[in-house]
Amino acid sequence: MLFVSSASIIIRFTDAPALIIAFYRVFLASLLIFAFQAGKTIDEVKKCERSTLITTAAAGLFLALHFASYITSLEYTTIANSVILVDSAPLFALLLSYILFRESAKFLSFIAVIISLAGAVIIGWGDISTNPELFRGDMYAVAGAVFLAVYLVCGRKVRAGISLTPYLVLVYGFAALFLWIICLVNGVGFFDYSGKVYILFAALAVIPTIGGHSLFLYTLKYFKAYVVNLGFLGEPVGAAILAYIIFGEVPVWYFYLGGTLIFGGLIYVVLNEEKDKTEALKASN
């Protein structure tokens, strides 16, 4: 939780375009993880079915769009707003799973989604009435949440057929490839930065990406999914505290109202998902 909470702080200190920050974040993460288990990764990737590789590539595309949107949002809105809006991704994932795959979801879960979205509207409405630039950042954050949700849905479809390390190498690698193309199209340079910036690129890859997101995925081996998902919900709290300590950012009053609704809806959806799985398991036995 501490590692993932550091992402927005490191990004704020990094004097580089959002696209290039996103590129180096996933490129270096993929490179480092591959170096850690190169042999296993190569062997398993060779055995992957074509459909698995295509779905993983799609996951990488949406992960690339997520990081690009999320990092861009930090140029316009507060860290607290950006992170809590981005972390509403599980709500969109629930809706996508229902729409695309007809996965069952209880009526109260949809009510929780509506309540959380109402919280997002409160934050966005408050920002647009005080500063349109803040609202622009909020919209980037919401887009980042939607892209992250699609990434999660794609990842869930392929994770059963591939180990964690090869999956991370592939999905981060595909994300880096797509971001490399986007940077080329937009004329963003890759090498005209100070040594300090490259150190921050590396820190972003190691601390919140490998030490945060990848470590959370690793813990699924030892904890139930809902416990890990609840851990992710610590990021908005941790990031907001760090933003206050380091940058003196104090959330405005409507953030607490909207954030409470978002947070409450997320917790309900995560806990209710675990309850449904437990009941389904008992019924099958």
> Which segments are poorly predicted (pLDDT under 50) over 5 or more consecutive residues?
none
Q: Name the average pLDDT.
A: 83
Instruction: Report the sheet with the most strands, covering strand number, pairing sense and barrel closure.
Output: none
Task: Count all strands and give the number.
Answer: 0
Sum up the overall morphology in one term: globular
Cα distance spanning the termini: 35 Å
- How many separate structural domains? 1
The number of distinct helices, counting runs of at least 4 residues, comes to 14
Radius of gyration: 19 Å
Tags for this model:
single chain, 285 residues, mainly alpha
Write a concise synopsis of the structure shown.
With 285 residues, the protein is mainly alpha-helical. It has 14 helices and no strands.
Structure characterization notes:
The protein is an all-alpha fold. It has one domain (2-284). The protein has 14 helices and no strands. It has helices at 2-5, 7-13, 18-36, 38-47, 50-73, 79-86, 89-101, 107-130, 132-158, 164-185, 195-219, 225-232, 234-247, 253-284. Helix 3 crosses helix 11, helix 6 packs antiparallel against helix 13 (234-247) and helix 7 crosses helix 9 (132-158). The longest helix has 32 residues, at 253-284. The two termini are 35 Å apart.
Give me the secondary-structure topology.
Blueprint: H1 2-5, H2 7-13, H3 18-36, H4 38-47, H5 50-73, H6 79-86, H7 89-101, H8 107-130, H9 132-158, H10 164-185, H11 195-219, H12 225-232, H13 234-247, H14 253-284
